[in-house]
């Protein structure tokens, strides 16, 4: 049984005729000790799907209108508030982008980590445990940095503090939502290496959300590509990077610069991700797709397993 099993998840904002479906039939699994990357442009529904795992999307304005979110075999959508509090942090923890916006500027970082310990492991809410967590995420001189305020740390150090806070509850699933977006390339590589090491050491699963396919090969076991609220390709990471099948995945790959290839200008995907409520008929990617056929605007394609372990939402993927 997988640690996380999302089945046909459907989430809307608003009600009645004005309802806007942000997540439409999303399904994927994450096994124990596995890293799944959820990839796509901004506005595709990645973060909303991830927040739904612990039902963190406010209801209202959102409504879960279908599907299941099975976490350790229990449906999160059927849990009461007491059960939800037990899994938030205790089973699944989150790391968000922009750590400077997530950390409280008026509290010392040690106290912020200790607050997470008090909620989930109160017997370990000590300075010694905070120092151990700081060492775990690679903070130098943790005995002194425990008293620092967030503004006294660089962006990379702040992100390490956020990771320490997420690990304080010893979660089984770590959700990292664009954890390297606001960091320079060198610090990005350090944070990804840290996540990889922590996964191996702690045997936890990771859901990494990103718009950058360039970092997928460094950390992912499998990749789910999302577009306009739907999964359009699901594949083992190595197979996807070697041979992307869906035209959208191919376009994302082509937009990543490669060393040794000189270009006059970067390759961009024409157009934009459609707004909620303005999805085109048929295949949602067809207005931007170089392989679009006459029937692509008429019939919505299903997500089909075209090779063992590889799923694609396009009849013209070959």
What report would you give on this structure?
This protein is α/β, with parallel strands linked by helices. The chain is built from eleven helices and twelve strands. It has helices at 46-52, 81-87, 99-102, 109-120, 127-136, 142-145, 155-167, 185-202, 216-219, 237-242, 247-254, and strands at residues 4-13, 20-30, 35-39, 62-71, 74-75, 92-95, 173-177, 205-210, 222-227, 230-236, 304-307, 310-312. The strands form two sheets. It has an eight-stranded mixed β-sheet, sandwiched between helices. Strands 2-1-4-5 form a four-stranded antiparallel β-sheet, covered by helices on one side. A hairpin with a 2-residue loop joins β4 (62-71) and β5 (74-75). The chain is globular and about 65 Å long.
Structure, briefly:
With 318 residues, this protein is α/β, with parallel strands linked by helices.
